[in-house]
TrEMBL record:
GO terms for molecular function: RIG-I binding. The keyword Phosphoprotein applies. SMART domains: CRAL_TRIO_N, SEC14. Residues 500-653 form the GOLD domain. It comes from Hypocryptadius cinnamomeus. Residues 191-216 are annotated as: Disordered. This is SEC14-like protein 1.
């Protein structure tokens, strides 16, 4: 009767659909384990769904039926927002010990909300409402399907008995290891003396080493369709790294294909792959790279004079990018746009490449995770070796290598002139060994002969400028007019603007000069929310309240209140004559935040007035037992040049009418997501600091 509620149940409107992820049956049919991924349409306010960015939430449910012991155990946990909210549910159907005709039902659940965009209390209420509703309806649903079975003439299910073939001298029948990789059980299955209950929770072949932990199993069809050939060890590495991200990362979890690229780049060394992936995810968040295709429009100069563009695909189905480097005025582009605009354009090309890989995977029905780049060097000369241009090129290569590993499937370099070896000598040391192996270089017209372009690209799509018949819409490049050149000062200001065109603001924090943000609250019980990244140095985060408004910062005095630097603003609001406890009060305990961490949190205001969010330089305390500084302290002080820290932050106030219910404890969630954060490299646990609203 219970199984009839799947794959969907009309009596539970929020239960939209479910898919079987894993299934295991023992040979004697005593044990049947099914793991499903369930899609739910939660009854939540439209505003909350919009902020969270989801229409549905997904749960994983595992049902373990043991016919020998006559038990059904059900476990469920949330997959969606598992880094912010942890929901665990356990149910069991058992036979009453005193009356075999009675079925006992037990149910328990736990809810742990770490952080949820400042809506923790709302989420808690929604979860409790849904859970209470499910409990009330549980018995009704079972009775509905029991009645349905009776109407079909099924009123009795025979008791399970061991098959004759299983009877042997041993009291326990040991099932063979199933062919399906979906058995969700750990190692050492046939240990002597285990009960049938214990067999369910162990592996069936101790002599055969497993690839990793029990959950290190992916659906074979999914692997073949989207990831390609993986050994059991590689599959295990992928699952373990993904699980670590789900447990520690407070942002968007990258797709399996993206995680796999970083693993391949480090030969499936989990520690090394995790380090570069963490650095890349922090970088993506700081520079809002996930939104670059939607929010950034390339300047017209790039559209007119950058001689590159996407052009169909190669014979392997990889997207093909054509770059006419020899026709491009690199000096003119750098002088007209600066390094940052060029870099951002290259990043947008890479993001578009990732998107096209996903599309081609769907079109060709096989995993395509990289693209082919065709570089035409016809016209390359000493002008391209202009020192600032080469410097910009090296920086772009460095950023792309660090954040888009294993995305270049093949690089075809055509019509390489005599000056090319000079450029190659300058550039090649910055290119990864694995990437260099993918380079194919053709001088003159060699690309037209055997082993040339036709081996990799269909004749029908060879560009016209290479002797083909296909019209290529890539811009022809040409010299950038000098009238478009910008001064060094203009380019510097443009570069700062370029990387701060985001909802996040950038601020510098100096020793003795904290950065402060003023928030005026009219209605008590409003909620102040924050989200910030510590990009450089260690800081202390404070929240203060004052009944009177602080004086506005003086922009004409560098030492008094406000400092403007290329790295971000520095504003000080709390006057030096103000006294803590008299003129203003602390409403949250100070929070120490390490370099590389992301912090999200919220505070329910108790009084109207003026709230000040403060980021202050954190000085490491010296060793208490000696006046000599520790080695760690010295190294840390060297990392923070000129006693300067940098944060990128976003704050928002939610009105009391949009945030109902009391919140007694609030949490500021940390994500130590940088190689510079000792917490990340030494522990896989996420760090959090509880902040109590007074």
């Amino acid at each position: 009767a219970y199984e009839r509620r799947f794959p969907t149940c009309p009596l539970i409107p929020m239960f939209v659909a479910s898919d079987t992820v894993n299934e295991y049956k023992s040979e004697d049919e005593a044990i049947h384990v099914i793991e499903r991924r369930c899609k739910l349409d939660i009854d939540a306010p439209r505003l909350l769904k919009k902020i969270a960015g989801v229409d549905y939430v997904y749960f994983v449910q595992k049902n373990s039926l043991n016919r020998r012991e006559r038990t059904l155990h059900i476990e469920a946990y949330n997959e969606t927002f598992s880094n912010r909210v942890i929901i665990n549910e356990h149910c069991s159907y058992t036979v009453h010990p005193d009356n075999e005709d009675w079925t006992c039902f037990e149910q328990s659940a736990s809810l742990d909300i770490k952080s949820f965009f400042g809506f923790e209390s709302t989420v808690e209420k929604i979860a409790m409402k849904q859970y209470t509703s499910n409990i009330k309806k549980g018995k009704e649903i079972i009775e509905y399907y029991l009645k349905q079975l009776e109407e079909e003439g099924i009123t009795f299910v025979p008791r399970w008995t061991p098959p004759v073939a299983c009877k042997s001298e041993s009291s326990t029948c040991h099932p063979r290891r199933p062919v399906s990789p979906a058995i969700n059980i750990p190692e050492s299955a046939t240990k002597e003396g285990l009960s049938s209950k214990e067999i369910l929770n162990t592996s069936s072949s101790p002599s055969e080493p497993t690839a990793g932990t029990p959950d290190d199993k992916l659906d074979a069809d999914y692997i073949k369709r989207y990831l390609g050939d993986l050994t059991p060890m590689q599959e295990s590495c992928l699952i373990r790294l993904r699980q670590w991200l789900q447990e520690t990362h407070k942002g968007k979890i990258p797709k399996d294909e993206h995680i796999l690229r970083f693993l391949r780049a480090r030969d499936f060394n989990i520690d090394k792959a995790r380090e570069i992936l963490c650095q890349s995810l922090t970088w993506r968040k700081q520079h809002q790279v996930d939104y670059i295709l939607d929010t950034w429009n390339p300047p017209q100069v790039l559209q007119d004079y950058y001689a590159g563009g996407w052009h169909h695909h190669d014979k392997d189905g990889r997207p093909l990018y054509v770059l006419r480097l020899g026709q491009m005025d690199t000096k003119g582009l750098v002088r007209a746009l600066g390094e940052e605009a060029l870099l951002r354009y290259v990043l947008s090309i890479n993001e578009e490449g990732l998107r096209r890989c996903e599309e081609n995977t769907k079109v060709f029905g096989r995993p395509i995770s990289s693209w082919t780049c065709l570089v035409d060097l016809e016209g390359l000369n000493m002008r391209h070796l202009w020192r600032p241009g080469v410097k910009a090129l090296l920086r772009i290569i460095e950023v792309v290598e660090a954040n888009y590993p294993e995305t270049l499937g093949r690089l075809l370099i055509l019509r390489a002139p005599r000056v090319f070896p000079v450029l190659w000598t300058l550039v090649s040391p910055f290119i990864d060994d694995n990437t260099r192996k993918k380079f194919l270089i053709y001088a003159g017209n060699d690309y037209q002969g055997p082993g040339g372009l036709l081996d990799y690209i269909d004749k029908e799509i060879i560009p016209d400028f290479l002797g083909g018949e296909c019209m290529c819409e890539v811009p022809e490049g040409g010299l950038v007019p000098k009238s478009l050149y910008r001064t060094a000062e203009e380019l510097e200001n443009e570069d700062i603007k370029l990387w701060t065109e985001t909802i996040y603001q950038s601020a510098s924090v100096f020793k003795g000069a904290p950065h402060e943000v003023l928030i005026q609250i009219v209605d008590a019980s409003s909620v102040i929310t924050w989200d910030f990244d510590v990009c450089k140095g260690d800081i202390v985060f404070n929240i203060f309240h004052s009944k009177r408004a602080p004086q506005p910062p003086k922009k004409d005095s560098l030492g008094a209140h406000s400092i403007t630097s290329p790295g971000g603003n520095n504003v000080q609001l709390i006057d030096k004559v103000w006294q803590l406890g008299r003129d203003y009060s602390m409403v949250e305990s100070p929070l120490i935040c390490k370099e590389g961490e992301s912090v999200q949190g919220s505070h329910v205001t108790r009084w109207p007035g003026f709230y000040i969010l403060q980021w202050k330089f954190h000085s490491m305390p010296a060793c208490a037992t000696t006046n000599l500084p520790r080695v760690d302290d010295v190294l840390a002080s060297l990392q923070v040049s000129s006693h300067k820290c940098k944060v990128m932050y976003y704050t928002e106030v939610i009105g009391s009418e949009d945030f109902r219910g009391s919140m007694t404890s609030l949490e500021s969630s940390h994500s130590g997501f940088s190689q510079l954060s000792a917490a990340t490299t030494s522990s896989s646990q996420s760090h959090s600091s509880s902040m109590i609203s007074r």
